[in-house]
Specification:
Layout lengths: L21 H10 L11 H15 L6 H4 L12 H27 L4 H11 L5 H25 L4 H9 L3 H5 L9 H20 L7 H32 L7 H49 L6 H8 L8 E3 L4 E3 L8 E7 L6 H14 L10 E7 L7 H13 L4 E3 L7 H9 L8 E5 L5 E3 L3 H7 L8 H10 L4 H4 L7 H6 L3 E6 L3 H18 L3 E5 L7 H12 L4 E2 L3 H20 L8 H14 L4 E6 L2 E6 H9 L5 H7 L1 H12 L4 E8 L19 E10 L9 H7 L2 E8 L4
Helix pairs in contact: 2-4, 2-6, 2-9, 4-5, 4-6, 4-10, 5-10, 6-9, 6-10, 9-10, 9-11, 10-11, 11-12, 11-15, 13-22, 16-22, 20-24, 22-23, 24-26, 25-26
Length: 724
């Protein structure tokens, strides 16, 4: 139905809120609602209406630049067949509503009465269908007017039709219509927002829908009421052209309607968000239980569990190959041992990735080797609350350092998967390495310590393999310093004494190394000394390393990464032994590892000398004193051996009073997960400190149980900024 001219109504426009109170009006609205069974899919029709408004808005002068973005383009999901089905059902109703709106507005009908009449005509439709059909009826007339406006200047037929409809005067001055359509444009946007919201509520079945069902009838009423007011306003503009002056009260009416719809939309959006949250929570609970069941069930291969982890139904190519820089499917992991390297974006150091990269590439050198028959996949766990653009640079930087597979898009990890990783696999902040066998069964919840200790020799990285490897190990320089220096194994094979020392006191380092060389020359001992720095090495250790090398005081490790790796291997030995349920009391390796870690946690230097199965070690001041006083133990050394005699002498130097500390990276605590540095704002690392201060003659490394009972044992959580 085309819009035809009308005369200005003489009576004043009624106040839009002069109707009965909301409760009474709601009862009247509900009285018009008598839907028949079955539901019409109104989305295709709504998409068509939005497209009409979008294209019409682009023709409105002076509104084009400012308002065009308000209306979205026609959605690609609109299928012509679905739209045709919808129009077959609603075509006659749309025409009837269009005629009703025009006739009532021309006749000066009351907006409330007209709206209630339209609701009555649409009584058999659902609420979402009511508002979409009403909008479609209005879009027919609105679109027809702007189609004529577009063709008027160049098409003779359009000009003739405009004259017949008495629109020619209006269209002669179409460039002046912008301000008069300003309020209409705003109201159209508000109507579409509310309508889209109402449509989205359909088929939702949640407790929150109870509240929504009380809001939707009123929302439908005010949307259709706005349609009527818009039509009345446009009829006034087109019928009298330049002679029509928009009344202040009429503009205020449209603005008030827009304000009311914005408010209604806000309430509906909140309820819609609650509904979606409820549905998503249920979905995630089901997905979590599905993962639980999958990992408890036997499978022929690992693809089923990997598909569930990576949500491959959303992305058929979820993995990124760091070597080829190509996206790939999970088929590349079929039937292989898969190591899932799980981390966040903040607790992965460059040193860690460098060592991982070296180990991974070494394992690939001979594809026929058994140790190469595994794949490594990085799973980044990101904070969903942080915008992706903020974390993307960090993610891409880390990913670029990996030649193995990684998850292409961290968003592929569903909340249920992240929950499973945290609750079942016990991931917190420190990286873990979960191992899946070729059938997708978890055979090790964290093999990262195995990887640091033995590298690819730990294949197939199961807990049983870890136990077997420890059964083959004995404490000695080979286990302690394996691979940290290229010449180490050669020196050992030649029967040389190997000395490792650490600390960050340059004065003590100079005294110790010069004294050690002097004693060895006097005793004619073949000795190689290696400086291993301190854990978490920073710029100070780099400077000391360079100074030692320049002054030729001893051998040094080539860079901070290798120093970092030396200490991480020691910490991994501690954690691996803990996973094996070993204690300091019943395991010599754990006892010795703890001793060296406590040296590193002190403020002093330290040293050890090893040859074969013998080893002498001690804190810096005692070890240096032992070397300086070698005349006092060189005779016992002839009988007992050099290193046993040194050990005995160092123990004799120890006083009853001592204060030892052991600082280890934090794994679990009720303390805050994140604390930032007060100076630079970077996240600080969390550590545990064990301290034993003893005034008795009891030695620190004695029975821990007795120490806990008889000695004051303090456990503190330290936060220490890791500096590189």
């Amino acid at each position: 139905m085309a819009i035809v001219p009308r005369k200005i109504q003489s009576k004043a426009i009624h106040h839009i809120f002069s109707a009965s109170d909301d409760t009474t009006m709601t009862k009247h609205i509900l009285a018009t609602h008598a839907p028949v069974s079955g539901h019409i899919n109104v989305t295709p029709l709504l998409n068509l209406v939005e497209d009409i408004f979008h294209r019409a808005a682009s023709l409105i002068p002076s509104i084009v630049q400012e308002k065009q973005a308000q209306f979205g383009a026609m959605k690609d999901s609109t299928h012509l067949s679905d739209l045709a089905d919808m129009l077959d059902i609603s075509y006659h109703t749309i025409n009837k509503i269009s005629c009703e709106i025009c006739c009532k507005c021309l006749g000066g009908g009351d907006a409330h009465s007209t709206t209630m009449g339209i609701l009555g005509m649409l009584s058999s439709y659902s609420w979402d269908a009511k508002v979409v059909i009403a909008l479609a009826a209005f879009a027919t007339n609105f679109g027809e007017f702007w189609l004529l406006a577009q063709l008027y200047a160049t098409n003779r037929l359009a000009k003739s039709v405009a004259m017949l409809k008495h629109m020619n005067e209006t269209l002669e001055h179409v460039d002046d219509l912008g301000p008069k359509f300003e309020t209409v444009s705003n109201l159209l946007k508000a109507m579409l927002d509310v309508t889209n919201c109402i449509v989205q509520f359909h088929d939702l079945d949640t407790p929150q829908m109870l509240t929504a069902t009380t809001l939707i009838p009123g929302a439908a009423y005010w949307t259709i009421r706005s349609v009527v007011s818009c039509a009345s306003h446009i009829l006034g503009i087109t019928s009298l052209g330049q002679g029509y002056m928009t009344l202040t009260i009429e503009s205020w009416e449209l603005s008030s309607l827009a304000y009311k719809l914005v408010n209604i939309n806000s309430h509906l959006r909140k309820q819609l968000a609650l509904c979606h949250q409820h549905l998503d929570d249920n979905k995630q609970r089901e997905a979590f239980e599905t993962l639980r069941l999958l990992f408890k069930t036997s499978h022929q291969d690992n693809l089923k569990v990997l598909r569930a982890l990576f949500c491959t139904k959303d992305d058929p190519l979820p993995l990124f190959n760091g070597s080829t820089k190509q996206r790939v499917s999970i088929e590349v992991l079929r039937g292989k041992i898969v190591l899932l390297y799980i981390s966040d974006l903040h607790h992965v150091s460059d040193e860690e990735l460098e060592i991982f990269e070296q180990m991974y590439l070494e394992s690939r050198q001979d594809p026929a080797m058994l140790e190469s028959q595994y794949e490594l996949v990085w799973i980044p766990v990101t904070d969903k609350g942080i915008p992706w653009l903020e974390v993307k640079p960090k993610f891409e930087k880390l990913q670029s350092m990996m030649s193995w597979y990684s998850l292409y898009d961290p968003s592929l990890l569903e909340p249920a998967t992240i929950r499973y990783i945290k609750e079942v696999w016990l991931f917190k902040t420190k990286p873990i390495l979960v191992v899946l066998d070729p059938q997708g069964k978890v055979v090790n919840l964290n093999a990262i310590h195995m990887m640091w200790i033995w590298g690819s020799l730990a294949y197939p990285f199961s807990t049983s393999r870890e136990e077997a490897l420890w059964n083959e190990e004995t404490w000695g320089i080979g286990l302690l310093a394996d691979t940290v220096h290229l010449s180490l194994l050669d020196w050992v094979s030649k029967g040389k004494y190997i000395c490792l020392y650490g600390g960050d006191n340059m004065d003590w380092i100079r005294k110790f190394t010069r004294t050690a060389h002097s004693v060895c020359r006097a005793l004619q001992l073949p000795l190689e000394i290696i400086y291993v720095g301190k854990s978490n090495p920073g710029e100070k250790i780099r400077e000391i390393n360079n100074a030692i090398d320049e002054e030729k005081l001893s051998n040094v490790l080539p860079d901070l990464t290798i120093i970092w790796f030396f200490w991480v291997r020691l910490e991994s030995m501690w954690h691996s032994k803990l996973q094996q349920h070993k204690t300091v009391e019943n395991d010599k390796i754990m006892h010795e590892v703890m001793r060296i870690l406590s040296y590193d946690s002190s403020d002093q230097g330290w040293a050890l000398i090893s040859k074969g199965m013998d080893m002498a070690q001690g804190k810096g001041d005692m070890f240096l004193r032992c070397l300086r006083e070698y005349d006092q133990w060189k005779e016992p050394a002839k009988e007992k051996g050099l290193l046993p005699a040194m050990n005995e002498y160092i123990q004799g130097l120890q006083t009853p009073h001592h204060c030892n500390r052991l600082i280890l990276p934090g794994i679990d605590s009720n303390m805050p997960e994140k604390v930032v540095c007060a100076e630079c704002g970077r996240p600080m690392e969390k550590f545990y400190m064990y301290r034993c201060c003893n005034n008795s003659a009891t030695y620190f490394m004695g029975n821990l149980r007795k120490l806990i009972i008889n000695i004051k044992m303090e456990t503190k959580v330290l936060f220490s900024l890791k500096k590189f």
